[in-house]
Amino acid sequence: MFELSEEQEIRAKKLHDESIVIDATALDHVATKKRWFDQARSGGVDVIWVTIGGFAGMANTIRSVANVLRFIEKNSDVAVQVKNSKDMRKAKQEGKMGILFATQDAACLDGDYAFLTVMDNLGYRVMGLTYSESNMLGDGCGERTREERGLSFFGLDVVEEMNRLGIIIDLAHCGDATTMDALKASKAPCLFTHANVRAISDSSRNKTDEQILAMAESGGVMGITALPRMVNNDLRAASIDGVLDHIDYVVNLVGVDHVGFAGDFTDSIERVKLGEMLPGTSYGTSAKAAPTQGSGWAYWRVKQPNMLGTLEERDVVPYAKDIDNLGKYPNVTRGLVARGYDDDSIVKILGENWLRVLDNVNKE
Predict the structure, then answer these.
(1) Residue 47 bridge partners (DSSP)
(2) The whole model's pTM is what?
């Protein structure tokens, strides 16, 4: 990994403890299961942007929201829903984990962007336009037509309505043409909440220099993630140093104001290691079961193994070395110190960049 002097270790710990530390992509298990919630807390995370529903209709999305709200109610001494930077700073002051509602897909809209008003009222502040597959808005990053098929008319309407409501547009999983269309259409900053640099690792889940430049021009931020194939073409070689390489690249390309961190850590890999069964899905009850539907993480590991790796690799190489769960988030701060970043830059990368976008976009 890297070695720090005693003085550097003290500085890194102080920065991590005093900064607003944000994980810009957490799955809902972090906000519904105490084990993983506590793991995030142990890593000094102050705010998690939680993927809640979004994939399969409005009813399922509302059900997912209800589960998270119940968790918050039962754990109100340490958890609170947040919607803006003021809420997040207050949560940190009170020693609570702030939970911001987000999605990675707009399939939940069921073809009617009026549902965005419902999501707004539920407290959603970030929404992905597509997951890796195509939907009514455009193409995801896993589709064979991702370089040609951009936003549909409905997609353009959704972008306009999200701008009006102050819901931030996330393009992390969008295909190339959809990404650029949305960046051109949006009047507000857009995010790549969990995407890395394609010039370093050529996964179609990663973003090109052109896309990163356009994102920065919009005023947005991209969250570097620890998924191994997104970190390194040889996913077995992915490490915290590779994650830091992606951060360095973005900083050198567009400046330190446009980069953060997003773990995108899943509990299912740990559950496989513990010998537990995965929840029953259309892919079966095992991570190695063959998928039969055109969506979801398993489908893309069969159809596009170059994007994230194979089904088998998901179990044996889950995340980059030394940053494989939120409890190890302090290694990001330690690495930034080791690479010579100044205090102001580190504070921005840990959370302030995300807060700036929230302040610029959200109405509250």
Answers:
(1) 22, 98
(2) 0.93
